[in-house]
Amino acid sequence: xxxxxxxxxxxxxxxxxxxxxxxxxxxxxxxxxxxxxxxxxxxxxxxxxxxxxxxxxxxxxxxxxxxxxxxxxxxxxxxxxxxxxxxxxxxxxxxxxxxxxxxxxxxxxxxxxxxxxxxxxxxxxxxxxxxxxxxxxxxxxxxxxxxxxxxxxxxxxxxxxxxxxxxxxxxxxxxxxxxxxxxxxxxxxxxxxxxxxxxxxxxxxxxxxxxxxxxxxxxxxxxxxxxxxxxxxxxxxxxxxxxxxxxxxxxxxxxxxxxxxxxxxxxxxxxxxxxxxxxxxxxxxxxxxxxxxxxxxxxxxxxxxxxxxxxxxxxxxxxxxxxxxxxxxxxxxxxxxxxxxxxxxxxxxxxxxxxxxxxxxxxxxxxxxxxxxxxxxxxxxxxxxxxxxxxxxxxxxxxxxxxxxxxxxxxxxxxxxxxxxxxxxxxxxxxxxxxxxxxxxxxxxxxxxxxxxxxxxxxxxxxxxxxxxxxxxxxxxxxxxxxxxxxxxxxxxxxxxxxxxxxxxxxxxxxxxxxxxxxxxxxxxxxxxxxxxxxxxxxxxxxxxxxxxxxxxxxxxxxxxxxxxxxxxxxxxxxxxxxxxxxxxxxxxxxxxxxxxxxxxxxxxxxxxxxxxxxxxxxxxxxxxxxxxxxxxxxxxxxxxxxxxxxxxxxxxxxxxxxxxxxxxxxxxxxxxxxxxxxxxxxxxxxxxxxxxxxxxxxxxxxxxxxxxxxxxxxxxxxxxxxxxxx
Length: 727
Fold this sequence. Notes:
Layout: H1 6-12, E1 48-63, E2 66-67, H2 80-83, E3 85-86, E4 92-101, E5 104-110, E6 113-130, H3 132-138, E7 148-153, E8 156-176, E9 179-208, E10 218-229, E11 246-258, E12 285-299, E13 303-308, E14 311-314, H4 315-320, H5 324-331, E15 333-337, E16 341-344, E17 348-358, E18 361-370, E19 385-393, E20 397-400, E21 403-406, E22 410-413, E23 415-419, E24 422-426, H6 429-434, E25 440-452, H7 604-615, H8 631-646, E26 651-658, H9 665-685, E27 693-697, H10 710-716, E28 718-726
Parallel strand pairs: 26-27
Antiparallel strand pairs: 1-4, 1-5, 1-25, 2-3, 4-6, 5-6, 6-8, 7-9, 8-9, 9-10, 9-11, 10-13, 10-14, 11-12, 12-16, 12-17, 13-15, 17-18, 18-19, 19-20, 19-21, 20-23, 21-22, 23-24, 24-25, 26-28
């Protein structure tokens, strides 16, 4: 660079500031350990068993002053000053980022807990509020600029390079039905590298050209410029690494996932092959929020110089200066300090919304908001940014197209791809292919070793995954390593449960054939008395004889009381004590001789009594109706006859009716029959067995006295009860 531009170098430095890394790649569910840099909560419940980053790098350049056709810049003879399009303002900005991620890894320490360890080298710078009109004025050199007078403003620039060793922990905080929340924390040890900064206050510059003698041109300036660095580069241009320049930082993050189909991923219903659904993205919409780079680095050997640049210098004085420090020290007053200085990290708020549109297609909206003071001396900040990124992702392949609005450089569109262990992309490549005035360029690439969670194979679908299945093509229980249990005798009882593995038998007898222990031809499984022989009809049990009378209960009419076989096992009864068993006694309640079948014989005395009683049965004259006048007497006689007859249940009696000869013989015959039947009906009504009775009328054919006298006729009108013999 020409010496005449040394003073302006303070104002424009190198257009550098922190830009975002890995644009479009961070939010892929298979970004792995890289995603922890954006939100430490993202690694919980990830799709990885472990993810090892071997090497990855990201770089970006953005500004709002120069616009170029990017691919022309690399051509021979390209003149940046004349061929680029400049867009000056009173406060132009520019940015560059360089981020290297070294060996890093993440892994699950438990189903809901994940750990990541990463190494990282970062170089970021900021320069803000550059007067673009001044830059445009002097781009060809002071001696070619002509007269000018500009207010340079409050230029503020800072640059920092450092290394990080980070440890991230993430866990599932809440999980219920469709709601899923996880959180993460990163703690970082920071090792400082090189830090430098410049800040101007109320700086104004003017130049008066001397056409006759260009070296006599005069540069006048006012204001104050502060320059600082992590060491005193004025006395020692060689960089000295300082292990004491260190600090600590933190990142915090939360991720909420809405899982409306949570019932599909119910772990309690998962099969072993499902691997608890760890290989699947289970959300419909994901919301992420994080704050990164909270912390600072303390440079203990830092030096700071503040110059009062009010004064006048000539072109010759600029040309004679050996370096920037010589020029400033020779021409301006300065105040120095070596007390050390803290450099803040570029604290930022990050947010993203990820929508699973359909199967493996996603749409992501994310952004960065600067949280650091951009006007602070030695302040490092990020540029505000919003990106909309459609993407297709699977385990071994992703393709994404980030569309980004970036503070300073405006809209840019890029593309990226992930193929297994490799990824490469740019947030601006598509824009730079077509734009003639691109103001930004970025890229990212890397190589890693991903070890994904996956659904296990279960070829025979027996619930035992193939890697644990000794018989992968034949279903079998887990207890037998996925192999079917053998059944040597083919009886349907597995050998492990078969007490007789070589002889077929029913399941109920543990695979053994049933025995006939008591030899009664009835197998033990249906023998109610397997140890005692018995007939089939009694389920293999012997018939009982409860009363021990020699008559088995099944044939014993009286199983609880002993009795002879002839009486079906019942004892012989003789209620009337006449020596004739009741079973053979026609009159079991009345004593009688054997020859009369146990019934009492009808004696002459009984017949005489019946004769006496029958004589006192009176009827209405000419009728078969009992006499009302002597009703009580007649009834008493009939009841006495009834009682006598009931004592002879096997005797047959005839009730005979007789009349005198007075009147029509046919009438008398019918009257005698009716009166005999009337007596019989009365006795039957009183309980005498009808089988024991008959009735008959004889009219006047059997007189016992002469019908010539009234007394004789009265004797002939009679009822007789005659014993006919036994039934």
